[in-house]
Queue: 4 jobs
Job 1
Amino acid sequence: MTTPTDPLSRVRELAEARVCTDRVRIYIPGNFNPDTWESTPDVVLWEGPGSILPDRAADVRVTVGDGQGTPVSRIGRYRLFTPISAPEHTVTLTTSADPDATGRRWRVDAPVRTSAPVLRLTWQTYDTTTNGGS
């Protein structure tokens, strides 16, 4: 029996097929110059399979009148899963099983490093400025 050169390659294939079921576009956002009223276009770095999942953990705890700490989400944090080859940057969902999510944008918050990479995990923040405030 031969040992594969990359022991995680089969796990990676399965994870990409089962988790990365949407299509994402990773890009550097263009800029608007208020002096010239011109915009530079987005620079697409990568486009391919991915998945965006909300983070259910609370960002802050608010203490109410009864003294109990109540978890409250202050910002929309999300996890972006992509193949290892994908870069880390701003992302938009180009195709999704959820039609309301298609076209939405997220900004990169923090990449995650691991010693056994199967999928790339990048923390994202929901971009209310480019999503019409919602």
Note: The chain is about 10% helix and 45% strand.
Job 2
Amino acid sequence: MTSTSPALGPLVGAYGLVGHDERLLLIRDRDASAFRLPGGQVRPGESIEDALRRCVRAQTNIDLTYLDFCAAVELRDHTSPTGPALYELALLFDVTLAGPDAARSSEHELRWLTQSDLHQIELRPAVIAERLRSDALTVERPWWPHRSS
């Protein structure tokens, strides 16, 4: 029997919806074409909050002053046509930076974008991009699983 999920289960990621002046902060890694939310993988033995604080600090050089759970989404990534699919449980948080105007990075491109700007850029993962663009990310629907096509 062939398994389509990793032996240890899904990866866990913590990502921030960093808002300021009606804009959302997105980042792009140097080797990537698409933007994404600030945040990253939770390390073994690390709390989700600590992981989010660590990642956002590393990506913006600014500390978080506030975070509140917003949503969870199951993401599926096909790394190869013949290999197993990888899953990530992405936990999204409403986040406030201590000094948002001072956010900077030598490793990432940082951009503050309005709701209309989100339609003009490549944003990944697609399921989160769709929710952000449609303004459908609400506390009333805090969970949405990946649906296979």
Note: Confidence is low (pLDDT under 50) at residues 1-6.
Job 3
Amino acid sequence: MIPDDVKERLKKKYNLEEPTPFNSEQRLPPPRNRTEYPATTEFHIDPYKGAGELLLGMTPDEVQAALNFQPRAGFHGKNLMNIPYEEAETFVRQYDPDIQTNGTGFVSLALGFGVYAEFAFENTSLPVETVCVFEEGYFAKNKE
């Protein structure tokens, strides 16, 4: 929390107006999507609380319940979430030996997805935390 005297000095120095307090109750609740593949189009961010119906600190089961979605193993029948990073990398290298690794996971340009596992290179037994999917040419397009 910023002390009041520091706030006042910053407001004067940069000619800032008093911000309107954030109130997540002022908006309508986000729509619930009940399709097989929930494609929620809006996630209103509540600082330090979450986004839409997803709250920080939720377990994977709670997130699935909030989205009314049960993930399925889709990449050659293997669920890459929450397995050790080393197991995920070994498995994916069978299908793309040219994956690009970085300090927190890998990306397969050939297969169009990547995984994130914080500190994976310090401890490869840490679990995969995120699997992201991207469109063909995404990385080339965003380098421009």
Note: Confidence is low (pLDDT under 50) at residues 22-26, 33-37.
Job 4
Amino acid sequence: MPERYVPKFSHKDWIDHQHRVQAGGEDGLNSRFHQLEAEFADLAQNQINPIIEELGGAAETRHLSLVPALFPDGAKPAWTQGVDMVEKPDAAPEAHGFMNIVLPDGVRVKSLLVTGNKSAGTLTVTLKRRQVGNEGTGAEPLVTSNVLGTPVNAQGDVRIENLSHRHFLTIGITGAANGTARVFCVQIAYE
């Protein structure tokens, strides 16, 4: 939230027949009008625009498109890493992994889109966060997708808070013993 507004410009009255009004100089009309310009610019940038953005009136949707580059998730079976995708190993009934992500602080996550293909199993991709000092009971899921090719909207006000949390994706597939599965891209829409 913006700080309280404190005016910086204060007009000193001119007195008839005592002050000579002029354009130039430290107390001239040009100087005073430039001080007003600066006051209005500061008011817009530091007071009005942050409130409009907070209310969602001026937010522009942006997208972060990620090629999965996954680390193994403990002792669970890992994905096979490709150049521009991950793939479930042929003989494995499941695969799991995670990756760190960085989004701009304070943005609101709108949706999560996963692209790829699979012939069997349940694919789960989750955007999660955890406090920077590992306080609390564990990672908090923010948005989860179990579908390919269709964005899943975030429920509620999902904000990125980089000061207090770190953010990451988990990608897993289960029940795919005889099937194939590939994940090409995870796209996060935010404003």
Note: The first strand starts at residue 62 and ends at 66.
